[in-house]
Amino acid sequence: MDRNAAKEAFGKYLEGSSYNATQIRFVETIIDYLTQNGVMDAGLLYEPPFTDLHYEGLDGVFGSDDADGIVSIVQSFSETVGVA
User: H helices of 1-84, where?
Assistant: First the structure.
């Protein structure tokens, strides 16, 4: 997957000044994963390396609204390539 496409999809989280360093690093880790693998199962957001940033993974780093938004973005990549 093109890294810029992934960064664009997650631009809200990377450019938003309201997000802390851990949240930004979490999103960057998702982008790294998508760049390497093209798609991602949202369940991986609750496993290493994501749990290295917070033991609860996605839910420990983001509130429910942001977590839902991130899952939607991750799922949209899978739907685009016909995996979901």
Answer: 3-9, 11-15, 21-37, 50-53, 58-61, 64-80
Buried b (16+ CB within 10 A) or exposed e, 9-25: bbeebeeeeebeeebbe
This prediction has a pTM of 0.89
Distance CA 84, CA 77 (A): 9
Query: What is the residue whose two structure tokens read 């093109």?
Result: 2
Mean pLDDT by 10 residues, the chain (84 residues): 88 84 95 93 96 97 94 86 54
Annotated domain spans of the chain: 3-80
